[in-house]
């Protein structure tokens, strides 16, 4: 049968089409051969070149942008432009990119006025499939170089490191660049900030190589959007990326280190240094990880070229600072969003603000007169702001003036350093005087110094009330966004109040009060990184169960690493702007200092400060040559006196508890008493107080209720103290208490035991002991929250010890929970083991109702006293001698702590009984009286030189304060090592506290007038 005429026509048309397409393919292939550099054909496989040619044939139909997706790789073709890299990489946010290379045609693409850019991308893999091939002789040579630079490096460690590097990375770098990249890697193992070296190619025109290459290694780098962020930074500085190769060492662990080499060139074929301010570019590049990039600051100011990326980061830091100042004026009006809007609404004013900062602090453009002129004009412009919307204009004026106040009162900053992990600013506290409300109601006294720190997902403060001061560093880590928004409103005020409380607490020691607070917000990066990991694991063939297990482990490790990284950033940036030579000159380069005096800061452990971090802080201080050395932080696990190990805070709390019980007519050694505690057996103060109850009052103490992060527990007959003590020694929270040991009426709420009935309905397990035995009950979310909020307050007991919980946990809004059905407080006495747990108004309400309260500045003061003696001993002896004498020193310190706690408790009760004045008010008066005497004495002592004769009464007073081991066995070192300013502070504090404790609150002649008489009295 003859073929159908129509079929013949189709075949003929097909042959013609194939012929025509073949001719077009040949045409485009030949153009590619002519137009692309030789390196393109060396690096791109033949199969991929075929794909590229096919896509070039129809690229005009795709708006000149074509993406070819391969297995764990991609090829992107587009017309070349300055933002080409940005346009390419924005589509690969959820891919880790280990190799990126762009090739640009030498000729314009047909029928266009632009060259074509062809970019190849290779993505990271959960399991590297490309076999590792590298010449053995080169590997041996590489190992020898590495071991020469790092003598402690073993063959096994090198082989493990080498095998974890991907083949493309090894092939792409010259031997010298590979050596350099490994040098960066070994530096990055012990540093958070980006480790990098820059190499310039002066012969780039003849070799065709990029004019600039950066080799870097960076700990814990994100994969999500990371190269895209780099591309945006590069493009903003008029640079282009010629090639990027990278390898991840130990990816998705807390030890993850990214090694990357970036070849850069200027736009329009110019050298990088001819088009970009290289130091400014590097400053932005190596801090890129720590600050937001995709926000309105970027959109409105940075992307438009009004300000540089580094100044965008400065503004983000200023936003948080201004919000902390204005939230007390109106929390609903001065929200973070409205603060941001106020700066962005008038970009010209905000860019001038950044320029003023530059004039004051950029060491290469310093001009104070120009700064003052700019500031005055900016103030006038802000005052004249008038858009016709009065409410908005008023808000924006207030916000902008606070931003300018921040710059004006900053005395030094690390902003112009070339490499750091967080911004740090030292401020003159007088900025508080410029707050647009009566600051005395919120901040009654001006501190001596305020530091502000802004880093990755975190910001915080350090506040001290005297030059020589001491206080703990607390890290607040909300897990949920709602909780974070609430905590975000109170960072500065909480730090101030804790430092202020500490100032009164420190009345017995030479140091004034200080506090550090760091708020670590929930990181959105964790979820995006988990998504990248999930995609890679899925592509590698892992099961859903295996994927979930790996992601859970990743999130757990990363949350802990984020905590440690934030704390290290806080410490590093703080030390940078206080570490100085004896004459007060800062050691750090590129820091303009308007303070010009030495600053020696002393920290202590607080919430979320683990032993490993305490030791790291001490080691870092020594390594940097900071004068306090390892005494920079107290409570060290070995060369220090760890608060939890020795129970130093709860020792004082227990003294106050005993005194309170005695005042109530209860002898704890023989009479039964009930007690409730906020805080769990794994905590410092709560856990050690449980230990005290178990060891000192095993037959009389009835611990009826506790609450901690794991849940809540109640037993009307008292929990088993032996079991609770075991939980303390095992560092386990109360949820591990065996519910079968409860007595009838008791319950255990276990927050970790949860089940979901729907995605939005979760229930929590409560064990309840009834007359018929143990019953299991699943509570709704609202029922669980009600118990957690009210349980510890509604339970009746003789003594309540708040030993854990956020500030203002008991306040005017929930104080009714602390009263029983007869209107009486549910505790007869409260010993505040935790700081600021009860608000001032709640304290007042309870005291009016007859509740006896030992305030935090009295009740838990022994912790900081211990730290002060630890530092005094460390400064005198050094680490080695300290360890030799540690056992004796600890016993002497514990004895002193008991004595000082008992002295104040006795005075408080005596004055309260005689006057009827509430004890919280008396606590304040005692601190005020002691500090007043001490300051009078310091004013006198500062004007004289201390005598060298150790028999002089002043020196005898100093020695009398010191521990027996120091004054008897190490007197020469004690006198030599302790600075005179420290000695004078000791003398003043020692006399002041003893006068008040021995003579009472009503004794107040001129302290200087009778000083000779006082020195003759035994102290």
From TrEMBL:
Q: Name one GO molecular function term.
A: glutamate dehydrogenase (NAD+) activity
Q: What is this protein called?
A: NAD-specific glutamate dehydrogenase
Report which superkingdom the organism of origin falls in: Bacteria
Glutamate/phenylalanine/leucine/valine/L-tryptophan dehydrogenase C-terminal domain ranges (all copies)? 640-916
**What's an example GO BP annotation here?**
L-glutamate catabolic process
> One Pfam family for this entry, by name?
Bac_GDH_CD
Protein family per UniProt: Belongs to the Glu/Leu/Phe/Val dehydrogenases family.
Instruction: Provide the alphabetized UniProt keywords.
Output: Oxidoreductase
UniProt lists the gene as gdhB
The EC number(s) attached to this protein equal: 1.4.1.2
